């Protein structure tokens, strides 16, 4: 299915830019109609992924985050600007971070197309 819109953000692989991505995600998710709890789930998941990327020092360059907007969901893809190793969830605290992301998002896929390091989906639940 083709997205309605896509928004891309490219930030340096530094902790001080996580808030920029979280703010972007919040605005996009709000526009789609997500409630505050789902928006918080998305923001926490984004923080976990980017923190793992920075902690593992997988990239000295930039992190690309692509938001794909659908009528019933949002998909967020994380890509690296270089050829750094792509295994950011390698045991210990990383397992806990990955389980947090899996519990907050509806779908989580690692290394989906050799370009996206991680792809995650949150489905929009509309009130009946």
Q: What's the short version?
A:
The chain is of the alpha+beta class and 128 residues long. It has helices at 18-32, 36-55, 93-104, and strands at residues 5-12, 62-69, 73-80, 107-110, 116-123.
Structural account:
The protein has 128 residues and is α+β, with helices and mostly antiparallel strands. The protein has a single domain, classed as Heat Shock Protein 90. 37% of the residues lie in helices and 28% in strands. It is built from three helices and five strands; from the N terminus they run βααββαββ. The protein has a five-stranded antiparallel β-sheet with strand order 1-2-3-5-4, with helices on one face. Strand 2 (62-69) and strand 3 form a beta hairpin. Helix 1 packs antiparallel against helix 2 (36-55). The longest helix has 20 residues, at 36-55. The protein is globular, with a radius of gyration of 14 Å. The model has no long low-confidence stretch (mean pLDDT 86).
Features:
about 130 residues, Heat Shock Protein 90, 5 strands, HATPase_dom, HATPase_C_sf, kinase, kinase activity
Write the layout of secondary structure elements.
Blueprint: E1 5-12, H1 18-32, H2 36-55, E2 62-69, E3 73-80, H3 93-104, E4 107-110, E5 116-123
Antiparallel strand pairs: 1-2, 2-3, 3-5, 4-5
Helix pairs in contact: 1-2, 2-3
Computed structural class: alpha+beta
Strand order of the largest sheet: 1-2-3-5-4
The proportion of residues forming helix, as a percent range, comes to 25-40%
CATH topology tier name: Heat Shock Protein 90
Helix count, per DSSP?
Answer: 3
CATH architecture: 2-Layer Sandwich
Domain tally: 1
Query: What's the order of the H and E elements?
Result: EHHEEHEE
Quantity of strands, as a count: 5
- Compute the average pLDDT: 86
Radius of gyration, taken over Cα atoms and rounded to an integer in Å? 14 Å
Share of residues in strands:
25-35%
Strand count, sense and barrel status of the largest sheet are: 5 strands, antiparallel
